[in-house]
What does this fold into?
Amino acid sequence: MIGIRTTTRARPINSWLGWVTIAVMWPVMAAAQDSVEDQGQVRVSGTPADVQAALQRPCAIRQWLGHVDAIRVLSHPAPNQTLVYMRQNLPWPWRARDAVSRFTVSQHDHSIVIDQVNVDGVVLPEPGVVRIPRLHTRWQLAPAGNTTVVDYQQQIDLGGHVPQWISQRGATRLVAQSLDALQDYMSRPSADRCEVVGDNPAGSPGSAE
It folds into this structure.
């Protein structure tokens, strides 16, 4: 591990999107008028392709990303793109959040880059669940010997009315926790990872748990 570093700053919603993650949708909250921006870096075991699988397989995501209540692959708009629905039951003071995101995978030299943006009009919001209004993330996976250096950037507005200072503190803590959990997941023997009957890689529509 080369260490987890996170920074958080708020910007007006009408500012440039910046970068945001996979996660997937990280469980951090911004005030209704602000977005929260974070970045982190961690070294994990395995190749960039191994880490990509951990970021894209629904069963793997459940093992390292906290509070995931539902996740499923919806479709593939292009060979390198995947539409994914995810819902997270966040701890107090936040309510449950969901989003539909488009993930785009590209190759840059020897690194794999995964960009995520939220899209509207694909799945109707559920009663009692707050739809994330703005999400943009980037994972860059660079080989380093028999390990991978993971650089993560995100900008997110999760809606709601939680005070900004709580959002910022939660962002720093939860991004660090998620990257640490990803590192722990990748340190397990391959036989101990992502063993869920019926689960398919995020390359297969309908993948879900």
Notes: The longest helix spans residues 164-187. Residues 92 and 189 are 34 Å apart (CA to CA).
